[in-house]
Amino acid sequence: MDQELAAKVAIVTGGSGGIGRAMVELFVEQGAQVVIADVDVGRGEELAADLGPAAAFRRTDVADPDDVQALVDFAVDRFGGLHVMCNNAGVSSSFRRLLENDLRDLQRVMAVNLFGVMYGCRSAGLHMAGHGGGAIINTTSMGALTGGSFPIVYRTSKAAIIQFSRSAASDLAEYGIRVNCIAPGHISTGITNYDLGPTIRYSQPLQRQGSSADVANAVLFLASDRAAQIAGVVLPVDGGTAAGPPFAQTQLLLAQAQGQGGADAG
Predict the structure, then answer these.
(1) Which one of 154, 175, 194, 202 is the catalytic residue?
(2) Residue 58 near residue 13 (C-beta atoms within 8 A)
(3) Which of 90, 157, 254, 263 lies 20 to 30 A from 151 at CA?
């Protein structure tokens, strides 16, 4: 099978660990030259060294628009172009309920999760628009697709990414630039700070534990020519969570409700 990204240049922000690292490794395996963008210099440089000449590291704070533009310029200078932009960098937020949450992390979370995506789309788009187009994939979250209270700032930032991405997909399509979103759910990463076991058991129809590689495979599809007719979509990689709870859990809740109703009737 031919390599999916042969002769293409990609940027992955937040690329030194977790889902971003899985994207970087898969992209290189599939023939791309990849710029790893992250604030973690040690891990980023180590990953680039491990992957060889097809990878390069650039320290980047995605909350700084000048840093993001310099990242795109670096990719073009180093590898001769830019065909795929993965705006993946993200941070979590407080799990406190709203009335107990002073929102002190609001500015930082929005700056990284939302504004970083916006800066990345614009800087990458400026190059792609004059060079035959490209693919932009923005990382949102299952938490943007489902209801729930906390983490409220994180959920809000990720939901905003979806609306921005749809607007960008419409706006940039005339240049041959495809903008899409990936929405991971219940994936173990550096910012996963809850117990995945019970969460999967009660809320995820597919009971297998998803991995960063699962997400990377979906991103590869959106980045490749196989997705040439796809723009403005949000692709969940969440084991079916956005579709609703597992059948067994629904049965249990129904049985409890019926039992309570029977007790009340008696």
Answers:
(1) 154
(2) no
(3) 254
* Mean pLDDT calculated for residue range 33-44: 98
**Cis, peptide link before residue 65, omega less than 30° from 0:** no
Beta bridge partners of 184: 237
Query: Residue 119 belongs to what H/E stretch?
Result: helix 116-129
Which of 48, 57, 61, 65 shows the shortest CA–CA distance to 90? 61
Instruction: Give the single-character DSSP code of 257.
Output: H
| Residue 154 falls in the annotated catalytic set | yes
Residue found under tokens 């533009």: 69
Mean pLDDT of the 51-61 span: 98
Distance, CA of 177 to CA of 183 (rounded, Å): 20
**Rounded distance, CA 163 to CA 264, Å?**
45
The per-residue pLDDT for range 119-142, each reduced to its tens digit, is: 999 999 999 999 999 999 999 998
Could you give the CA distance from residue 262 to residue 253 in angstroms, rounded to a whole number?
14
Contact of 185 with 236, CB cutoff 8 Å:
yes
Residue 56's alpha-carbon distances to 81, 93, 168, 204, 255, in angstroms, are 14, 30, 28, 37, 56
Residue found under tokens 């079916």: 240
Q: Is 12 helix (H, G, I), strand (E, B) or coil?
A: strand
**This prediction's pTM:** 0.89
Between 212-223 and 18-29, two packed helices, what is the crossing angle to 10 degrees?
A: 50
- Domains of the chain, each with CATH number or no CATH: 9-265 (3.40.50.720)
Neighbours of 149 (CB within 10 A): 10
Q: Which two tokens stand for residue 167?
A: 């607007």
Residue type, 49: A
